[in-house]
Amino acid sequence: MLVRHLGLVDYAPSFAAMRAFTDGRDAETPDELWIVEHPPVYTLGLGADPAHVLNAHGIALVQTDRGGEVTYHGPGQAIAYLLLDLKRGRGGRLYARELVHAIEQAVIDTLAAYNLDGERKAGAPGIYVAQGPWQGAKIAALGLKVRASGCTYHGLALNVDMDLAPFSWINPCGYAGLKTVDMKTLGVAAPLAEVQSALTHNLLERLKG
To answer: What angle do CA 183, 188, 189 make, to 5 degrees?
Structure first.
């Protein structure tokens, strides 16, 4: 898998580039993992209700074709976009549910390296704090597009060291009152680049054929 570290880039061009890459790929195109950071933006999934944006405070709102509801991206967030052909997965094909599980486990592994416990919640994709004062708070969001061809894009966002206020201006992932947290608030003062590197390593490990 080819890993691209793209730095701080606007969301809309990144979304367009993911779609263009997927439109143009064929059976020989290598899978890619894009590691990015975005300026402040709200993104809506295909089934998202715009009413979950309570007050955008001037932050741009972009309609996407991923699954899920509304979420926020901003500086200090480790974002990984997975441009994969699932037909090449383990055992000849990787199914969407297996991919989601692998991505979530990579986030759990990354948090564990910093002595943070993350967990899944049934029916609510993403990773949540497993214990302590912030138990139940969401620390990572996940949303994918899986085309009929078996090719994927979009991915995950892990909150590292962010301004969390914009999360309070929406119902995160469609849940009113859902607490959202970052690693810094949980006591981990790790540089974003370091967490990006750890997350990249764990994704590659979990997605190995």
So the answer is: 105
